[in-house]
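Changelog note: in this version the structure field was regenerated for every chain. One regenerated record is shown below for reference.
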Amino acid sequence: MKRIVKYIIFVLIGLIFIGTFTFLFKNSRPDKIEYQELEAVLGDIHRTTVVTGKVEPRNEVNVKPQINGIIAELYKEAGQQVKEGEVIAKLRVIPDMNSLSSAQSRVRLAEINVKQAKTNYDREKALYDKKLVSDEEYDQVLQAYNQAVEEQAAAQESLEVIRDGVSSRNTTGSSTLVRSTITGLILDIPVKVGNSVIQANTMNDGTTVATVANMADLIFDGNIDETEVGSLVEGMPMVISIGALPDYSSEAALEYISPKAVENNGANQFEIKAALKPGSGHTIRSGYSANAEIVLETASQVLTIPESALEFDGDDTFVYRKNAEGGYDRVQVQTGLSDGVDIEIKSGLNQGDKVRGPRIIKSEENEN
């Protein structure tokens, strides 16, 4: 029994040894190295760049109140169309106490002046009827009276505007009504009923009651690096794509290149703009992220090879060209425009030449 156990142990040890030897032998065998074979062909090379940016309306305005007050009513909401002059909100006036006091004082003074002018006029009229004063004197007193009456009306109107936001003589032009200044889509109404709003003045920009834009006239607004802006000219074609709309793309023409750079993350960039064509079946919203592909340079029907076939040695560029014996000769080439995948070959190769490409590593096990 002991002998049988010993034999089993010896057999197991032998199997382990043989297995280990076989594994190490297979892994020590060299891999077979092959190369892709590429061909020099005629083709077009386009050097492009992609500019990131966003979509926004060309004409977007902030509608602000003409007086200080409190939002009493809102007639519109974001997403609705509005016409120029259409009422968006109504205000309840909060008059400035100093202005109100001055207007009231002006009304009282105007009333006093009218009473005095009326007394003078009545006295002069009685004398004029008796032919005791000249026409010229009478006309002067009448004119003074009329001026006093007009001043009283103007003072009363000014008081009504300051106190109520509208005068009784011009109810259609009420400054309590906030009207849209353009025809378009309401993008945002950042206020609510009960919010206080102030008019624009030299000290502040005023409260925005609504933001309105013409969504039929959209532009792409992006920034391009200073290393590429030198290749741009106004009128260059672009293709605009929007991330939120995978099936949307729009051809456009570059219409604006900023003359001044802005610093962005340590790099100088220039703003560019191009008009979009909204197209049917797509709802484009303000602020969508977008990309613009611009062709910076083009080389048509030139000799090209994949850029992966190149070998660089200092300032020189080489490829391995296949010879008649099936081997490869190292030859120097002159390169031109590259699109990041293929590159133009100006000299050193002919159409149809075969060149050695990247390595293909195959093990003997996989080959078998």
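Spot check on this record: The chain has four domains: 1-30, 33-45+300-367, 50-57+215-298, 63-211. The helical segments are 2-28, 97-129, 135-164, 226-229, 364-367.
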